[in-house]
User: What shape does this take?
Amino acid sequence: MRSTVPVALAAACVAVAVLATGPAAAAAPTTPAPQGSGWEPAPSAPWDVAAGERCAFPIHGEPIVDEVVRRELPPPAEGVTRSAYKGDLVVRVTNKETGARYDADVSGSALVDVYATGAQFWRVVGPVLVGVGDGNLARGMYVVDGVYTIGISATGAKTVTGPVVATDSICDRIG
Assistant: This one.
């Protein structure tokens, strides 16, 4: 597993699952957050995506390691919430037609601003799972790694930018 970076730089993901399919919650992580630390468990729920929405085939994602924690931070402006995420997360993504699967280590860290409009802005260090229907990456499911930002519009379009960005297509891996 990867170690996390300082919260000032970033913090991760549903947090990854948020990027993959939408807000999610599930079972508690395998290790609790240290008491009194301000960090709370932020588990990811299993999810399903229909054929054609991300990959040409239907996919299922399920966390097999989920030690993600979240910390609420002071809001940077009116109508904005800010949270930091960090912790180990491995999501098993399965092609529901063939059973092919890939265990994606998406243990990045992120600092996430959520606006009243529903738009989000992520500052990320390390890998996260990103499902794209509309955006500057082709439709698909990716492990995005590096030092980068993700802008998510109120309609769900995702824009990934940054000085160091690598993408790995999960659809290609399990297709």
